[in-house]
């Protein structure tokens, strides 16, 4: 499967299914060679960003925001070519969504407060001196800014 096809599919799926597909794709592209814990941490950052509303209202908006996650950084011709890693990424993404649906105090957070992450071996972001929450595998997770869930007026 090519990334372009996956993102097209996400554009025609119902929103919840699309978000699960976009999160699975991001976990695969960003962390397929990392531990399950590292994959969970990547998913958590995307979910935290979605809740803030700063990068979009859906997980697909968040992970395709310009130069934020792999879906906007790698060529559309990139293939999802490892079926075992894909299956693991889907499982991690679905479990992360279920965990994140719990009330904030009941969630299992891997990287509390982390709003960003980087593989410092290949990237040197301007915010790399921000507060480090954790390093898991090749990724270092940062609290660059405090992300609060957006308020919904009723």
Automatic annotation (TrEMBL):
Known Gene3D superfamilies for this protein?
Cell wall hydrolase SleB, domain 1 (1.10.10.2520)
Q: Which InterPro entries match?
A: Cell_wall_hydrolase_SleB, SleB_dom1
Q: Which residues cross the membrane?
A: none
What GO molecular functions are on record for this protein?
hydrolase activity
Q: Identify one Pfam family in the record.
A: Hydrolase_2
Q: Where is the signal peptide?
A: 1-17
- Keywords recorded for this protein, A-Z: Hydrolase, Signal
Domain Cell wall hydrolase SleB positions? 34-142
Q: What is this protein called?
A: Cell wall hydrolase
């Amino acid at each position: 499967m090519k990334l372009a096809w996956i993102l097209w599919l996400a554009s025609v799926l119902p929103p919840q299914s699309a978000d699960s597909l976009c999160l699975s794709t991001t976990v695969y592209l960003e962390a397929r060679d990392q531990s399950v814990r590292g994959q969970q941490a990547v998913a958590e950052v995307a979910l935290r960003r979605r809740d803030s509303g700063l990068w979009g209202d859906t997980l697909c908006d968040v992970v395709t925001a310009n130069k934020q996650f792999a879906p906007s950084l790698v060529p559309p011709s990139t293939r999802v070519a490892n079926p075992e890693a894909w299956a693991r990424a889907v499982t991690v993404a679905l479990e992360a969504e279920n965990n994140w649906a719990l009330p904030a105090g009941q969630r299992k957070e891997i990287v509390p407060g982390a709003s960003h992450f980087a593989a410092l071996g290949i990237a040197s972001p301007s915010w790399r001196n921000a507060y480090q929450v954790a390093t898991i595998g090749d990724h270092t997770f940062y609290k660059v800014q405090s992300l609060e869930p957006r308020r919904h007026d009723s």
